[in-house]
Amino acid sequence: MTDLAASNQPLIAATTRWRETAARYFRLTKPRVIELLLVTTVPAMVLADRAFPSIGLVLSVLVGGALAAGGANTINCWIERDRDQIMRRTRGRPLPAGEISPSHALVFGIVLELVAFALLWSTVNLLAAALSASAMLFYIFVYTIWLKPRSPQNIVIGGAAGAVPVLVGWAAVTGEVAAPAWMLFGIVFLWTPPHFWALALRYRDDYAAASIPMLPVVKGAARASLEILVYAVVVVATTLGLALVADVGAFYLVAAAILGVLFVAQAVRLYRSPTAERALRMFLFSNIYLALLFAAVAVDTLIAS
Fold first, then answer.
1. What CATH number does the domain containing 59 carry?
2. Per-residue pLDDT tens for 82-121?
3. Around Cβ 265, how many Cβ atoms within 10 Å?
4. Would the pTM count as exceeding 0.85?
5. Are the C-beta atoms of residues 198 and 282 closer than 8 Å to each other?
6. Exposure pattern of 53-68 as b/e (b: 16+ CB <10 Å)?
7. Which of 216, 218, 164 has its CA nearest to residue 188?
8. 19-22, long-range: CB < 8 A, 24+ apart
9. Is 15 a member of any domain?
């Protein structure tokens, strides 16, 4: 038994190393961000189909979308590895921590994008694949490289990349992008600034140290919390406006109204007391808000179908 255990040690060690390496590459993709993006995709598909689409189509869109988002996030990590090393929140990521070589990370990100495009094109349609690729290009070149290090409005414009998955979901079902899809896009687009500014307010010192001109760094906590409140109100108005272009019923409208009141209430609390703790609560609740709002879209559609 002792000899058998000893002979298995190299295999066990190799397996452990492989798992650790796989986990590091997985962390490069920012899986929590991917989850949030995919949460908006399926409800958009349900609304477009007026029913739950085929499992095969949903899986293709989710896997392709996850690979595309993971690739974009990986390339983002490659570009920002020096800045990430400065910030306490991000210095533990695989690249600044020296766990993965930059060249390997870049290749990994590009491969993910190529596989995502091929998968979406072959199993969904070209429009869905092209939209997904456009989100990656916008996120990398417009947001990460151009806007983020230069303008406090970086996330206002750059947040468009995170809103594209709803268009991908709609295009996957219909082969086109209609008005309801653009309204869903607008909801996510407008939700992104208060969501991300809350996080930037929580980690304002980190962004200042890395010379990243996030709104709380450039304009201060009071101004940032005011703009978060203004955007929160606009987001809620937009969610209710979905009824003007899409066939949504009472369930969605009631859910959107209740969630909207809670969302704005969080923003009001932050405006009255723009502390790091309040900012973190706003950030965390914004995730829950968006997930529940899009869940209401799907539930409302399935109830009516």
1. 1.10.600
2. 999 999 999 999 999 999 999 999 999 999 999 999 999 9
3. 12
4. yes
5. yes
6. beeebbebbbbbbbbb
7. 164
8. none
9. no
